């Protein structure tokens, strides 16, 4: 069954810094300090991007003393991957379908 791809999530992930954050968090759970070191972004800019990722449900937080750690929600990416797989399957079936021009 074809499901539509979550365009809001695609827009969230399309930003280069947010994609870099997601890529880093796919490897390990990190705090803001680690992410500043890894990305070279300013802390305020990074915090704004993390807020967008949190609100989109892509990451979740884990308080640890005075630090906040961020980790990915793999289920979100599994759902998105499934949506793309459905789209690919639909495209395979549509190869023979050609609408005639008027």
Q: What are the salient characteristics of this protein?
A:
elongated; 5 helices; 102 residues; three-stranded antiparallel β-sheet; alpha+beta; 14% strand; 3 strands
Question: Can you describe this structure?
Answer:
This protein has 102 residues and is of the alpha+beta class. Helices cover 59% and strands 14% of the residues. The chain has 5 helices and 3 strands. The protein has helices at 7-14, 16-25, 32-39, 43-55, 74-94; strands at residues 30-31, 59-64, 67-72. A 3-stranded antiparallel sheet has the order 1-3-2. The longest helix has 21 residues, at 74-94. The mean pLDDT is 91.
List the helices and strands and how they pair.
Blueprint: H1 7-14, H2 16-25, E1 30-31, H3 32-39, H4 43-55, E2 59-64, E3 67-72, H5 74-94
Antiparallel strand pairs: 1-3, 2-3
Order of strands side by side in the largest beta sheet?
A: 1-3-2
- Overall outline: elongated
Low-confidence stretches: none
Tally of helical segments: 5
Class by helix and strand content?
alpha+beta
Output mean pLDDT. Answer: 91
- Taking the alpha carbons of the first and last residues, their distance comes to 29 Å
Helix content: 55-70%
Biggest sheet character: 3 strands, antiparallel
Number of strands: 3
Determine the strand fraction and express it as a percent band.
5-15%
- Gyration radius, rounded: 18 Å
Output the helix-strand order. Answer: HHEHHEEH
